[in-house]
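Annual report, structural modelling task.

Input specification for the magnesium ion complex:
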Amino acid sequence: MKTGQIHVSTENIFPIIKKFLYSDHEIFLRELVSNAVDASQKLKVLASTGEYKGELGELKVEVLLDKEAKTLTIRDNGIGMTAEEIDKYINQIAFSGAEEFVKQYEGKEGAESIIGHFGLGFYSAFMVAEKVQIRTLSRHEGAQAVQWESNGSPEFTLTEIEKDTRGTDIVLFINEESAEFLEKSRIQGILDKYCKFLPIPVFFGTKVEYIDSPEGEKDEDGKVKRVSVDVPNQVNNPKPAWTIAPVDLKDEDYTAFYRELYPMSFEDPLFHIHLNVDYPFNLTGILYFPKIKENVEVQRNKINLYSNQVFITDSVAEIVPEFLTLLHGVIDSPDIPLNVSRSYLQSDGNVKKISAHITKKVADKLAEMFKKDRADFEAKWDDLKIFVEYGMLSDDKFAEKAKTFALIKNTDGKYYTIEELEEQIAPLQTNKDGKVVVLYTHSLEEHFSFVKQAKDRGYQVAVIDGPLASHWISKMEQTVENLSFARVDADTLDHLIQKEGELPSKLTEEQQSELKPLFESAVDNQKFKVEFKSMSESDAPIIVTQPEFIRRMMEQQKYGGGGFFGAFPETYNLVVNANHQKVEALLKMSDDSEKSTKVKQLTDLALLAQGMLKGEELNKFIERSISFV
Ligand code: ADP
Ligand code: MG
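The model returned the following structure:
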């Protein structure tokens, strides 16, 4: 037996390891299992180059729990280590690097993930174990098996032992505070999280499976009996879809993999993108487009980041642009510097390139789908819309590409690209300043009469809805020349699309001033501004409008952005049609109470058309209307 000192230049690294990893103790298992996988992969490589001439056998990793002995063992049949190798790889750990790291990063965010980077992976075992043994037999013919043991102080012992199977057992004697890691379900949970797609089969315990009775026993119906047997429980799928070439995968395979990733998800994704990059960085992955519902937030943080099939994190905010976090799926890259702090990631050139590349791929895929099968793309549009709008708002390069496939639906259910729509409506909907005005509604139901009036004039009305609508509209107005948007209820049609030469007004200014107080007293004048406009005789006598600017401000406040306006007061225009015969008739009426009843009735009708007549006022309106019958 040999005893020695682990080469640690700091007094004692272990308390520091424990402290550092406090929040993330569970990753010890990820580190040890991936070391076991590495040891197996290395043996495969040696066998393929002819350096290892023995039998490979079935390479696998086993995690063994012994609750009574309070041990957790990670076993592999990989390359193993000789005493010299232990000395080199375990005792002379890069603790000088670790010391530097400790000084530099102590207390900083992300520090806990640095540990693997400095070769401290194995030592993370001491977060949960009071004693650790390495029992190993090297791949070399006639090698002597050895056991390394340490209790977490820099001292270790090295002994020769009996072990006749190739490979390594890492035995953790779990410490008292870490008793949770002696629970089967806890271990299973960690393996599910980090080891689900490791490239070498990983086994933990057994599971029950039902098979035909091996003795051929029959039940009453003469059928072979089904019996339950315990079989080894493999926790991982060593060949996940993203590691397979796209040509070898069918649509069903992608859907099946989606289910494997998100067993709790009930809805299939809309479509996927298989990423495969090897220059200037290595990256593979599959991104899925979910059907995005109005509630954008719940969709986030579904992309899982892997490094060589080892799960790292599901928070990818630093690696992909924010709008892409709405997607689901997997990104695997050995080149992403996973083991450094978040702020470093954000400024890292490689990470920026990855992010730009993914954005480009996503835009290209959408453009390709649009070109290939427009009908299918249109069918998917309603589910894609928020994603594309979000992308256009947050990334100018994406916006540039998206202009060719971003669609606008009209009230007849037809879809146009922005350019197509502009071309369609230009002849009728160009105003006197040469701007093409897109009329829109967020709800056909709510704006029925406004939409009808617009359509009666031959105008098209677009349906633009969703939480990002008004932000997106502003963006389009800024980036598409000569295009402006107006909601159908923002003003009278003649003012929404102003043409040369206004209609003359039948009412004189004096007559308007005479009538104005009547209307003002019919409504809450904090909220409504009464104005007269010369509209067509066939238009409604009164309409309630909400100026485009005020409404957009309110909407944008509601969904973030532009907070400095404070609470914007809700205000409307009560527009009186100065050419309507019913309005003109009021002038000739002498009975004041009859006049105000008429005015009330007319304003109520206008409110009703906007869905703004409610409660007691609505009730009064109904009663008044009945009295007219
Ligand atoms: P890293 O994996 O980053 O190299 P670790 O601290 O996890 O750092 O492991 C240190 C070294 O110990 C490994 O590089 C490897 O040479 C050796 N090692 C660890 N676990 C095993 C194992 N199960 N079989 C063979 N060698 C191992
Ligand atoms: Mg390691």
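The radius of gyration is 36 Å.
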